[in-house]
Amino acid sequence: MHRLALVVALLLATSVTTAADLRSIDVSYDGTRYEFKSVVWFSTGIDETYTVFSRWDYSTRFSSAVVEARDTEIDGQSGYYVVNRGCVLFFCKTLKREGRVERETNRVLRSYADPEKSDFRQADEVWEFNEDNGGTRVIYSLTMEPAFWVPPAIGPWMIKRKLRKDAGEAIDRIEQVARQVANSDVIF
């Protein structure tokens, strides 16, 4: 009986519950560029939440669309390299982004894709981190202009739908990775 109680206690102690809350999401298209903005609250602290977002190599842990990601350095400045693979209906595409990163630790991350090394004319992202009610609020914005053909009749609708769906699926996994970071002495 003690053994069963120990197993149950261990299972309860190691189970990961998440409280991530997607508070708002907006996707717009102006004929050339997509604008994506979201506000998410994570129950994790600002240090570990910022760490998850600031390490591009963690992206494969929370986004099924990311097939390769790594932190890089460009002329002494922080950078990133990401390969995404995604399908919307019967359109599948592998997309590459490479660029530079600006950091204000635990406050703001900014990334700018280099159009000469990316499949985007523009892919600029900003994450703003704020302590909020015992957790962390992340305000994310993306301005994206694909350098590839998007079917005009259904393309914008498909991309908007995919961005919304992927964001909703990723937030719980982001929080799980942040919890792992918080409970580890080693950055993995």
What's the SSE blueprint?
Layout: H1 2-14, E1 21-29, E2 34-42, H2 46-54, H3 59-62, E3 66-74, E4 77-88, E5 91-104, E6 108-113, E7 120-132, E8 135-146, H4 155-182
Antiparallel strand pairs: 1-2, 2-8, 3-4, 4-5, 5-6, 6-7, 7-8
Helix pairs in contact: 2-4
What is this structure, in a nutshell?
It is built from 4 helices and 8 strands; from the N terminus they run αββααββββββα. It has helices spanning 2-14, 46-54, 59-62, 155-182; strands spanning 21-29, 34-42, 66-74, 77-88, 91-104, 108-113, 120-132, 135-146.
Rg over C-alpha atoms, rounded to the nearest angstrom: 18 Å
The low-pLDDT segments are 1-16
Q: What integer is the average pLDDT?
A: 85
SSE pattern: HEEHHEEEEEEH
Helix-and-strand structural type: alpha+beta
What is the fourth-level CATH superfamily?
Answer: START domain
Shape: globular
Largest sheet: 8 strands, antiparallel
- CATH architectural name: 2-Layer Sandwich
Integer count of domains: 1
Strand composition percent: 35-45%
Counted beta strands: 8
Order of neighbouring strands in the sheet with most strands: 1-2-8-7-6-5-4-3
